[in-house]
Amino acid sequence: MSNRKKDTLTKLELQIMQVIWKQGAGNVAAVQGGLQQQLAYTTVQTMLNILHKKGKLKRRLRGRAYEYSATVTEANASGHAVRDLVNRMFGGSSEELVLSLIKTRQIDPQKIVELTRRLEKEGVPE
After folding, report:
1. Torsion angle of the four alpha carbons 9, 22, 33, 68, in this order, in degrees rounded to the nearest 10
2. Rg (CA), the chain
3. pTM, rounded to two decimals
4. Other C-beta atoms within 10 Å of 23: how many?
5. Distance CA 22, CA 8 (A)
6. Rounded to whole angstroms, how far apart are CA atoms 70 and 67?
7. What is the pLDDT of residues 38-80, one digit of tens each?
8. Torsion from C-alpha of 90, 93, 95, 96, nearest 10 degrees
9. Distances from the Cα of 41 to the Cαs of 50, 90, 101, 111, in angstroms?
């Protein structure tokens, strides 16, 4: 499995990770109950196993069921997804991403100025 494929989360994998990040560790039934869409128990179990193989979750046996917990933070996963998007769609140029957001009116130039001021005031996290 390539590193990018291993690091990239599908839409469903992300939904499952969001349940784990929100609820903390849980078994298949707990994760299934935390999802907005209804999925079969075996589907959730399969997805948890895939995320475990990708290294995104760790598991431990509790009684007769595995309990899953995240090995990556939501911030790390988000950062990776943004880097992947910038690399694939904008040739690694974050400036092109920002220009695209402005051109498609998903963010206006004034908001960019506000965000720049906020970053200058708060500092950029490392």
Report:
1. 70
2. 18
3. 0.76
4. 13
5. 20
6. 10
7. 999 999 999 999 999 999 999 999 999 999 999 999 999 999 8
8. -20
9. 14, 38, 39, 43
